[in-house]
Amino acid sequence: MRDESEVREQYEFLQDQLADEEMRHEGVRQLFTHYKRALGWVLEEEHL
Questions:
Q1: Which residues contact residue 1 at a Cβ distance below 8 angstroms, ignoring those fewer than 6 apart?
Q2: Whole-angstrom distance, CA of residue 39 vs CA of residue 11
Q3: CA distances from 40 to 2, 4, 22, 25, 46 (A)
Q4: DSSP 3
Q5: Distance between CA atoms of 22 and 44, rounded to whole angstroms?
Q6: What domain of life (predicted)?
Q7: How far is it, in rounded angstroms, from Cα 35 to Cα 7?
Q8: C-alpha to C-alpha distance for 45 and 28, rounded to whole angstroms
Q9: For 24, phi and psi rounded to 5 degrees?
Q10: Which residue of 10, 11, 13, 44 has the fewest C-beta atoms within 10 A of its own C-beta?
């Protein structure tokens, strides 16, 4: 399994990508939103 810092770095990268004005295409936004949720769940489970 990846260490927490690597997962957190990817999560923050995805948040930045979602905030970018050029990522407004709905399909791309949905894809990144799913990845963001999945990474968030991984981070939450690591701390339970």
A1: none
A2: 6
A3: 14, 11, 23, 22, 10
A4: -
A5: 29
A6: Archaea
A7: 11
A8: 26
A9: -85, -10
A10: 44
Tokens representing 14 are: 């995805």
Q: Is 24 in a helix, a strand, or coil?
A: coil
1-48 per-position pLDDT tens digit: 567 888 888 888 888 877 777 666 777 778 878 888 888 877 777 665
Distance CA 21, CA 9 (A): 21
Instruction: Look up residue 42 and give its two tokens.
Output: 């991984």
Q: Which amino acid is at 22?
A: E
In the chain, the N- to C-terminal Cα span, in Å, equals: 16
Counting every residue, how long is the chain? 48
- pTM beyond 0.85: the answer is no
